[in-house]
Input
Amino acid sequence: MDSAPFGSIALEYLPFFLEGAAMTLAIVFSAIVCATALGYIVASARMSRFVVVRSIAAVYVWFFRGLPLLLLLFFFYYTRPFGITLDAFTAGLIAMSLNSSSFFSEIIRSGLKAVSVGHLEAAESIGMNPLQKFLRVTAPESIRLMIPAYINNCVIMLKESAQVSIITVPDLMMQGQRAFNSTYNVTETLGVVGVLYLVMTSVLMALQVVIEKKTGRKMGNSARTVARSAA
Output
Protein backbone atom coordinates (compact mmCIF):
# COMPACT_ATOMS: atom_id res chain seq x y z
CA MET A 1 0.00 0.00 0.00
CA ASP A 2 2.37 2.71 -1.24
CA SER A 3 -0.47 5.21 -1.69
CA ALA A 4 1.02 8.14 0.24
CA PRO A 5 2.74 10.83 -1.86
CA PHE A 6 6.45 10.13 -2.25
CA GLY A 7 8.43 12.08 0.34
CA SER A 8 5.54 12.55 2.75
CA ILE A 9 6.74 9.82 5.13
CA ALA A 10 10.25 11.21 5.23
CA LEU A 11 8.90 14.62 6.20
CA GLU A 12 6.27 13.42 8.65
CA TYR A 13 8.42 10.85 10.45
CA LEU A 14 11.81 12.56 10.13
CA PRO A 15 11.96 13.54 13.84
CA PHE A 16 11.33 9.90 14.79
CA PHE A 17 13.99 8.69 12.34
CA LEU A 18 16.49 11.19 13.77
CA GLU A 19 15.67 10.09 17.32
CA GLY A 20 16.30 6.53 16.24
CA ALA A 21 19.59 7.51 14.60
CA ALA A 22 20.64 9.28 17.81
CA MET A 23 19.86 6.14 19.81
CA THR A 24 21.82 4.04 17.31
CA LEU A 25 24.85 6.33 17.67
CA ALA A 26 24.52 6.31 21.46
CA ILE A 27 24.56 2.54 21.82
CA VAL A 28 27.19 2.02 19.10
CA PHE A 29 29.71 4.54 20.41
CA SER A 30 29.14 3.43 24.01
CA ALA A 31 29.82 -0.13 22.86
CA ILE A 32 32.91 0.97 20.91
CA VAL A 33 34.38 2.62 24.03
CA CYS A 34 33.64 -0.39 26.23
CA ALA A 35 34.80 -2.92 23.62
CA THR A 36 38.04 -1.01 22.98
CA ALA A 37 38.92 -0.83 26.67
CA LEU A 38 38.03 -4.48 27.21
CA GLY A 39 39.78 -5.45 23.99
CA TYR A 40 43.01 -3.80 25.13
CA ILE A 41 42.87 -5.68 28.44
CA VAL A 42 42.28 -8.98 26.66
CA ALA A 43 45.02 -8.25 24.11
CA SER A 44 47.48 -7.48 26.92
CA ALA A 45 46.46 -10.72 28.65
CA ARG A 46 47.04 -12.68 25.45
CA MET A 47 50.57 -11.25 25.30
CA SER A 48 51.27 -12.04 28.97
CA ARG A 49 54.22 -14.20 29.90
CA PHE A 50 51.95 -16.26 32.14
CA VAL A 51 50.42 -19.27 30.42
CA VAL A 52 47.28 -19.27 32.57
CA VAL A 53 46.53 -15.62 31.76
CA ARG A 54 47.12 -16.22 28.05
CA SER A 55 44.88 -19.28 28.10
CA ILE A 56 42.00 -17.48 29.83
CA ALA A 57 42.22 -14.61 27.34
CA ALA A 58 42.32 -17.04 24.41
CA VAL A 59 39.18 -18.81 25.67
CA TYR A 60 37.45 -15.44 26.06
CA VAL A 61 38.22 -14.51 22.45
CA TRP A 62 37.17 -17.96 21.19
CA PHE A 63 33.89 -17.85 23.13
CA PHE A 64 32.62 -14.36 22.29
CA ARG A 65 33.95 -14.32 18.73
CA GLY A 66 32.17 -17.59 18.04
CA LEU A 67 28.73 -16.62 19.37
CA PRO A 68 26.22 -14.67 17.24
CA LEU A 69 25.39 -11.19 18.48
CA LEU A 70 21.68 -12.03 18.34
CA LEU A 71 22.14 -14.91 20.77
CA LEU A 72 23.95 -12.63 23.23
CA LEU A 73 21.20 -10.03 22.91
CA PHE A 74 18.54 -12.61 23.75
CA PHE A 75 20.61 -13.99 26.63
CA PHE A 76 21.21 -10.67 28.41
CA TYR A 77 17.71 -9.35 27.82
CA TYR A 78 15.51 -12.39 28.41
CA THR A 79 17.33 -14.70 30.83
CA ARG A 80 18.02 -12.29 33.73
CA PRO A 81 21.70 -13.30 34.01
CA PHE A 82 22.88 -13.70 37.61
CA GLY A 83 19.36 -12.72 38.70
CA ILE A 84 19.71 -9.18 37.32
CA THR A 85 16.99 -7.71 35.13
CA LEU A 86 18.51 -5.53 32.43
CA ASP A 87 16.73 -2.87 30.41
CA ALA A 88 16.96 -3.16 26.63
CA PHE A 89 19.68 -0.53 26.18
CA THR A 90 21.94 -2.03 28.85
CA ALA A 91 21.44 -5.56 27.55
CA GLY A 92 22.25 -4.41 24.03
CA LEU A 93 25.31 -2.49 25.20
CA ILE A 94 26.72 -5.46 27.13
CA ALA A 95 26.08 -7.89 24.29
CA MET A 96 27.66 -5.63 21.68
CA SER A 97 30.63 -4.79 23.91
CA LEU A 98 31.46 -8.41 24.70
CA ASN A 99 31.02 -9.54 21.10
CA SER A 100 33.09 -6.72 19.60
CA SER A 101 35.80 -6.76 22.29
CA SER A 102 36.85 -10.21 21.07
CA PHE A 103 37.49 -8.79 17.60
CA PHE A 104 39.09 -5.58 18.89
CA SER A 105 41.46 -7.59 21.08
CA GLU A 106 42.86 -9.39 18.06
CA ILE A 107 43.20 -6.13 16.13
CA ILE A 108 45.00 -4.48 19.05
CA ARG A 109 47.23 -7.51 19.67
CA SER A 110 48.24 -7.62 16.00
CA GLY A 111 49.02 -3.91 16.01
CA LEU A 112 51.16 -4.13 19.14
CA LYS A 113 53.08 -7.13 17.84
CA ALA A 114 53.74 -5.41 14.51
CA VAL A 115 55.59 -2.45 16.05
CA SER A 116 59.12 -2.23 14.66
CA VAL A 117 61.65 -3.84 16.99
CA GLY A 118 64.26 -1.45 15.62
CA HIS A 119 62.25 1.57 16.72
CA LEU A 120 61.81 0.11 20.20
CA GLU A 121 65.53 -0.63 20.50
CA ALA A 122 66.39 2.87 19.31
CA ALA A 123 64.03 4.34 21.92
CA GLU A 124 65.71 2.27 24.64
CA SER A 125 69.17 3.28 23.44
CA ILE A 126 68.41 6.97 23.97
CA GLY A 127 67.16 6.33 27.51
CA MET A 128 63.38 6.45 27.10
CA ASN A 129 61.50 4.99 30.04
CA PRO A 130 58.69 2.47 29.38
CA LEU A 131 55.97 5.16 29.45
CA GLN A 132 57.85 7.42 27.04
CA LYS A 133 58.55 4.48 24.76
CA PHE A 134 54.87 3.55 24.73
CA LEU A 135 53.60 7.10 24.12
CA ARG A 136 56.19 8.13 21.52
CA VAL A 137 56.84 4.87 19.67
CA THR A 138 54.52 1.96 20.45
CA ALA A 139 51.20 3.83 20.54
CA PRO A 140 51.65 5.96 17.39
CA GLU A 141 52.97 3.08 15.30
CA SER A 142 50.49 0.46 16.51
CA ILE A 143 47.53 2.83 16.11
CA ARG A 144 48.56 3.60 12.55
CA LEU A 145 48.65 -0.12 11.80
CA MET A 146 45.34 -0.83 13.55
CA ILE A 147 43.23 1.96 12.06
CA PRO A 148 41.93 0.24 8.87
CA ALA A 149 40.79 -2.92 10.66
CA TYR A 150 39.58 -1.00 13.71
CA ILE A 151 37.39 1.46 11.78
CA ASN A 152 36.12 -1.36 9.57
CA ASN A 153 34.99 -3.20 12.69
CA CYS A 154 33.30 -0.01 13.96
CA VAL A 155 31.37 0.21 10.68
CA ILE A 156 30.31 -3.41 11.09
CA MET A 157 29.18 -2.67 14.65
CA LEU A 158 27.08 0.24 13.45
CA LYS A 159 25.33 -1.91 10.86
CA GLU A 160 24.86 -4.88 13.19
CA SER A 161 23.40 -2.59 15.85
CA ALA A 162 20.13 -2.82 13.91
CA GLN A 163 19.67 -6.15 15.69
CA VAL A 164 19.09 -4.41 19.03
CA SER A 165 15.67 -3.39 17.72
CA ILE A 166 14.65 -7.02 18.28
CA ILE A 167 14.92 -6.50 22.05
CA THR A 168 12.95 -3.22 21.79
CA VAL A 169 15.79 -0.70 21.80
CA PRO A 170 14.24 2.33 20.01
CA ASP A 171 17.05 2.65 17.49
CA LEU A 172 16.84 3.69 13.85
CA MET A 173 15.61 0.29 12.67
CA MET A 174 12.92 0.18 15.35
CA GLN A 175 11.69 3.65 14.37
CA GLY A 176 11.63 2.54 10.76
CA GLN A 177 9.50 -0.45 11.71
CA ARG A 178 7.10 1.82 13.60
CA ALA A 179 6.80 4.16 10.62
CA PHE A 180 6.10 1.19 8.36
CA ASN A 181 3.45 -0.17 10.76
CA SER A 182 1.69 3.20 10.59
CA THR A 183 1.99 3.87 6.85
CA TYR A 184 2.57 0.46 5.18
CA ASN A 185 4.92 2.27 2.79
CA VAL A 186 7.87 -0.08 2.85
CA THR A 187 9.75 1.52 -0.04
CA GLU A 188 10.07 5.00 1.38
CA THR A 189 10.50 3.81 4.96
CA LEU A 190 13.40 1.53 4.08
CA GLY A 191 14.80 4.22 1.80
CA VAL A 192 14.99 6.81 4.59
CA VAL A 193 16.44 4.29 7.05
CA GLY A 194 19.00 3.17 4.47
CA VAL A 195 20.08 6.74 3.70
CA LEU A 196 20.60 7.51 7.38
CA TYR A 197 22.68 4.35 7.88
CA LEU A 198 24.76 5.29 4.82
CA VAL A 199 25.35 8.78 6.22
CA MET A 200 26.55 7.40 9.56
CA THR A 201 28.81 4.75 8.04
CA SER A 202 30.20 7.26 5.53
CA VAL A 203 31.19 9.58 8.38
CA LEU A 204 33.12 6.73 9.99
CA MET A 205 34.87 5.95 6.70
CA ALA A 206 35.79 9.60 6.23
CA LEU A 207 37.08 9.67 9.81
CA GLN A 208 39.34 6.74 8.95
CA VAL A 209 40.96 8.71 6.14
CA VAL A 210 41.54 11.74 8.39
CA ILE A 211 43.00 9.67 11.23
CA GLU A 212 45.27 7.72 8.87
CA LYS A 213 46.71 10.96 7.51
CA LYS A 214 47.28 12.46 10.94
CA THR A 215 48.75 9.36 12.54
CA GLY A 216 50.93 8.83 9.48
CA ARG A 217 52.46 12.27 9.89
CA LYS A 218 52.89 11.82 13.64
CA MET A 219 54.49 8.42 13.17
CA GLY A 220 56.90 9.82 10.62
CA ASN A 221 57.90 12.64 12.97
CA SER A 222 58.33 10.27 15.92
CA ALA A 223 60.44 7.84 13.88
CA ARG A 224 62.68 10.64 12.62
CA THR A 225 63.09 12.02 16.14
CA VAL A 226 64.09 8.64 17.55
CA ALA A 227 66.44 7.95 14.64
CA ARG A 228 68.19 11.33 15.00
CA SER A 229 68.53 10.88 18.76
CA ALA A 230 69.88 7.35 18.41
CA ALA A 231 72.38 8.52 15.83
Notes: The chain has eight helices and no strands.
